[in-house]
Automatic annotation (TrEMBL):
<dbReference type="GO" id="GO:0005506">
    <property type="term" value="F:iron ion binding"/>
</dbReference>
<protein>
    <recommendedName>
        <fullName>Magnesium-protoporphyrin IX monomethyl ester [oxidative] cyclase</fullName>
        <ecNumber>1.14.13.81</ecNumber>
    </recommendedName>
</protein>
<dbReference type="GO" id="GO:0036068">
    <property type="term" value="P:light-independent chlorophyll biosynthetic process"/>
</dbReference>
<keyword id="KW-0149">Chlorophyll biosynthesis</keyword>
<keyword id="KW-0560">Oxidoreductase</keyword>
<dbReference type="InterPro" id="IPR003251">
    <property type="entry name" value="Rr_diiron-bd_dom"/>
</dbReference>
<keyword id="KW-0479">Metal-binding</keyword>
<dbReference type="GO" id="GO:0015979">
    <property type="term" value="P:photosynthesis"/>
</dbReference>
<comment type="function">
    <text>Catalyzes the formation of the isocyclic ring in chlorophyll biosynthesis. Mediates the cyclase reaction, which results in the formation of divinylprotochlorophyllide (Pchlide) characteristic of all chlorophylls from magnesium-protoporphyrin IX 13-monomethyl ester (MgPMME).</text>
</comment>
<dbReference type="GO" id="GO:0048529">
    <property type="term" value="F:magnesium-protoporphyrin IX monomethyl ester (oxidative) cyclase activity"/>
</dbReference>
<keyword id="KW-0150">Chloroplast</keyword>
<keyword id="KW-0934">Plastid</keyword>
<keyword id="KW-0602">Photosynthesis</keyword>
<dbReference type="InterPro" id="IPR009078">
    <property type="entry name" value="Ferritin-like_SF"/>
</dbReference>
<dbReference type="Pfam" id="PF02915">
    <property type="entry name" value="Rubrerythrin"/>
</dbReference>
<dbReference type="GO" id="GO:0009507">
    <property type="term" value="C:chloroplast"/>
</dbReference>
<comment type="pathway">
    <text>Porphyrin-containing compound metabolism; chlorophyll biosynthesis (light-independent).</text>
</comment>
């Protein structure tokens, strides 16, 4: 990631927990048959065309002020939040734009849906980048496009991961929005006022990927697919949990407890996923969040070791048992018995 300051550039280290850029097998995507629920795609396309947020992302007078009143730590954490969010939105824009181009002939309805989703993601990324401008910063998106490494994901993995990222994005945004609506004294910057409509874009994108998954029953109804659903649910939840554990001060600044916030978001996303996935994670198992807490602490220990002024060999020796413990805890989380989606739906109702 490149952060452009008035006269210099600095690099941010890429890790497994940073937002990634993806590519996929475009021919396999083009060959997918969506005829089983074509009417659902047509309805979703009409929703995208309505463009409910066309006039939403317009900066108003509240942005036109100095933000030097933010203390240094809060300012740095908020800038990091903007950077990560902008990078994630821009990653979505690039993937959706390329998919719309590759599928234009073979699957025009799906291609147009991807095109309109790329419109939304570009709008989000641009709005976030303008916000960074209030802090005399901006992401060099052109440099980011050329220099960032791309991770290959098969189409079904794109569907699982992106469906969950859009749905968890919805619950993250709406939870923050509803909290700040009740406690406006914690709204440290006006961008949070835009989250209610913003998260509806995330929700509609998630519905599109849900339709793609439903059109391919082999991605949902086999033993292998059930294992992959568990894997991606855990991956998305653990990534958020470990990231937010490092940023508790940011959540404190907007009046939230990071752990309770993550627990609520995970529960809501798990319920949403149960409407599509055949299984959900047993987040009510008393070991579930206990193990996530241990993973977050182990990840934090790894980060602290990187900050210490010790040799690479000594650092790696100290890291090894932590990596082993972290891996073991993630495996224990994965092998916690899942629950049937039907059971989740019955409880929610």
């Amino acid at each position: 990631m490149q952060t452009t300051l008035p006269s210099s550039k600095s690099e941010v280290k890429e890790t497994l927990l940073t937002p990634r850029f993806y590519t996929t097998d475009f021919q396999e995507m083009a060959d997918l048959d969506i005829s089983t629920n074509i009417h659902e795609f047509e309805a979703i396309l009409e929703e995208f065309k309505a463009d409910y947020n066309r006039q939403h992302f317009i900066r108003d007078e509240e942005f036109n002020q100095s933000w030097d009143n933010l203390d240094r730590d809060t300012r740095n954490l908020f800038i990091e939040f903007l950077e990560r969010s902008c990078t994630a939105e821009f990653s979505g824009f690039l993937l959706y734009k390329e998919l719309s181009r590759r599928l234009e002939i073979t699957s025009p309805i799906v291609a147009e849906c991807f095109l309109l989703m790329s419109r939304d993601e570009a709008r989000h990324a641009g709005f976030l980048n303008k916000a960074m401008g209030d802090f005399n910063l901006a992401l060099d998106l052109g440099f980011l496009t050329k220099s960032r490494k791309y991770t290959f994901f098969a189409p079904k993995f794109i569907f699982y991961a992106t469906y969950l990222s859009e749905k968890i994005g919805y619950w993250r945004y709406i939870t923050i929005y509803r909290h700040l609506e009740k406690h406006p004294e914690h709204r440290i910057y006006p961008i949070f006022r835009f989250f209610e409509n913003w998260c509806q874009d995330e929700n509609r994108h998630g519905d599109f990927f849900a339709a793609l998954l439903k059109s391919q029953p082999q991605f949902l109804n086999t033993l292998k697919s059930r294992l992959w659903c568990r894997f991606f649910l855990l991956s998305v939840f653990a990534t958020m949990y470990l990231n937010d554990f490092q940023r508790t001060d940011f959540y404190n600044a907007i009046g939230l407890d990071a752990r309770q916030y993550d627990i609520q978001v995970i529960r809501k996303t798990n319920e949403s996923a149960a409407r599509i996935f055949p299984i959900a994670l047993d987040v009510d198992n008393p070991h579930f969040f206990q193990l996530l807490d241990e993973c977050a602490q182990q990840n934090n220990n790894l980060i602290n070791l990187d900050k210490q002024n010790i040799s690479g060999i000594a650092r790696n020796i100290q890291k090894t048992p932590i990596y082993v413990g972290l891996t073991f805890n993630l495996l224990k989380l994965y092998f916690l018995r899942p629950v049937s989606s039907q059971d989740i739906e019955a409880v929610v109702k």
